[in-house]
Every structure is written in structure tokens, then in C-alpha cells.
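Notes from the pairing session

We agreed to fold both candidates in a single pass and log them together. This is the raw record for the first candidate, unedited. Please don't reformat it; downstream parsing expects exactly this layout.

Candidate A
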Amino acid sequence: MKGDGTVEKLTLRALRVNYSLSPKEVADCLGIEQQTLLKYENDSSDIPIHLANALADYYDVNLDSVFLGPESDLKQKFKERKLRNVH
């Protein structure tokens, strides 16, 4: 949790990397193609809800703590917040 009371969200890629798993390992376990997983790690804004839930269950996190959208959006928000904190 951040100082302002909001929960920091993690991307699908960050969750996988935190568990030291390869895209192939996760995709094989969930019965999907590796390219499908990589696509949704890059931009999860149109991920099917059943797959989002399956990934949240797999990583043992609440779906509310997963950032769903283009990974670039989250990176941009992080940069903006960092700049605000500097000034």
C-alpha cells in the first residue's frame, strides 16, 4: 500500500517475473499459447475475464491488485508521479 492509502498494482509481467517463471511455464500451466500470454503482458486491456481470473489465481493475488491495461500506461503514470515528487 502506498502512503496515500491506495494499493500499488502490478502488471502481469511483473507478477510472472516476481515468481521467476518463464512465459512458457505460465502459458503451459494455463493451457494457452506463449504468444497469447506475452500479448496480454504487453497490453491486458482486452484480456478475457476468465483468463485474467486464471492468472490472478495462478499468481495467488486478488484481481484488483493487477494492473489491466497497456503496460506503457502504467510506466507513464509512474514517471509522472516520480516527477511530481521531485518538485
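Candidate B (folded immediately after A)
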Amino acid sequence: MMQQLNLITGQTKEQEAIEFIREHEPPGGYFLGFSGGKDSVVLYDLTEKAGVKFEAYYSATGIDAPEVVKFIREHYPTVIHKRPKESFFALIPKKGYPTKWTRWCCDKLKKEPTKDIPLVHRMMGIRAEESARRAARGRMDKLGKWTIYKPIFNWIEWEIWDHIDSHNLPTCSLYDEGFSRLGCVVCPFVDGPKLKKAMKRWPKHYLAFEKAMKKLWDKGKPNGEPWHESNFDEFLNNWYRGK
């Protein structure tokens, strides 16, 4: 399917995104955040087409699906993998379990590994359609010393897939198996049928997670108080249910 022209600019969204990337190109080049998902695949393609200087980085969280890591290594070998100082499972007994409201895992596993990279002009495959919170931040914003650029901010999902199909771009095999998201395997936002599907597909990740949760249970709360659950199974199940 051909992209429609913007009646004001006379450009397709692809052309406009490429122009946006060129217009804001910093002298030292861009940092491109690459997750292995469909949005970052499109962002990478647009950046290459723009002909600008950039380095692509993948935050290797240790809890991504192995299929994602394999996909990046096979199809995007120039992407630089950055790992956290401590694993997710080692951090749980120290920091407590992550929740939808206290997502220390995003900071420790995704942001910290790349925070010392001197490229402060950072491109991300973030789209307004994904959430009201993301939409509110705009196409460009500041995060500490970083300036964040979002070339595909105004794209909707079908346009992402249309670009992938039109340009015959590779995507991770998990999409073909019905997985709609390729984020962390163990995540407080994964629940219900998606949780059951993930636990069945990647049991080793959940075994390691439950061992880490047992260490946290045995240790007790940071203030020394006991947990309000009566036993570990209840404690673990409450986390899975988002309580």
C-alpha cells in the first residue's frame, strides 16, 4: 500500500521522517535506540536512508526473549549490545520486585547501560499511538542531558507494517507466531493469557525469576518488617496478578 501524501507538505510520512532526521542531524551523529521490535526496524531503515551519521545500541536486559537477541545478531550485526552491571535476578533481592508503578528495572536494565555513551542526541522508535503519556511528550523532548528525537512519532501501527512490507525489511520471528510485543519476558505489564503464553514459552526465565523472588521473600521488606502475605506462594501469585 502506498503512503498518502500530506496535503500541506506534499510528502509521504516516510519522506517527512527522513527529512526530520536530516534536519536535526548533530555534528557528532545520533545515538539510535534499537530494541529489535518493529518500530526500531523502521527507524533504523529510515536513518540509513537519511544518510546521516549514527550508532545503534541495544540494551541487552538479560530478560528479553532469546529470539529477539538472535534476530538482532543475525540481521543487525553492527548494533552494539550494552549489558547492565547486575542482572535483573540479582537485583530483585536488593531492590524489591518491580511493579507497574515502581519500574526500577527500566532504569537499571535499559537506561543505565547506555547513560555514559557521549552521544546525547538520541533517536527512539517511540510513537504517540502507544499511550497518552508518550503522546503528551511530543516529537522532541529533553531527558536530562539528552535530547530525544522521535521520527516516527506520528505513525500508526498499520503504517509501520506497511513500510516493513513495502521495503521487505526483516522482523523477529515472534511476530509471525502471534506475539504483539517483544518487550521483556518477565514484566509486571504481562498478565492474563499473555503471561501464561510467556511462561510456557520461556520457562527458564520464570524459574530464575521465582528463585529471585524467594530470596526476596526470605529477606523480608527493606525496613525489616515481614510481608503481609502468609506464605511465599501467595506472595508470588500476588505479583503475577498485579496486586
